[in-house]
Design brief:
The chain is α+β, with helices and mostly antiparallel strands. It folds into 2 domains: about 5-70, no CATH class; about 75-135, no CATH class. It has 4 helices and 3 strands; from the N terminus they run H-H-E-H-E-E-H. A 3-stranded antiparallel β-sheet has the order 1-3-2. Strand 2 and strand 3 form a beta hairpin. Helix 1 packs antiparallel against helix 2. Bound molecules: zinc ion (ZN) (2 copies). The site of one zinc ion (ZN) has 8 residues, from helix 3 and strand 3.
Length: about 140
Amino acid sequence: MNLEEIRERAYSPVLGKSMARAYDQSIIDVRNLLEENERLQQRVTRLSNLERRNAKQRDEARARLAAVEKLHGKYPIYDAAFACADRTERHSQEAHMEVDGIIVCTDLPLYAVCAQCRDEEGFHTINWPCDTIKAVRGE
Ligand SMILES: [Zn+2]
Ligand SMILES: [Zn+2]
């Protein structure tokens, strides 16, 4: 009910009530509206608190996911440099490096293993993405 309607109710002769009674009713209506407004404001506050909590939980979940992705990182396995056709000094300096005593070419990726997961014998031979990465990604 807007102010116009309140005024109409208070002063309208067709309602058949005394003006005082209509006015009292208007006061009650205004009070009800104020109470309703108060309830709605409380609801808005509750919802925005809930939204903040949800955002916090979402950020925490993302951070945990990122930590798992980092732990179970992609570790590329490269072919040996002697398999490389590029014999230039520049390429050798840029792409050839020693990994576990073997010179490899980073331009010749063979596959990737998980930096964290190990097989039954304790070796890093589990292909990436590993089961853990697939699980957290929902794959
Ligand atoms: Zn190379
Ligand atoms: Zn893994």
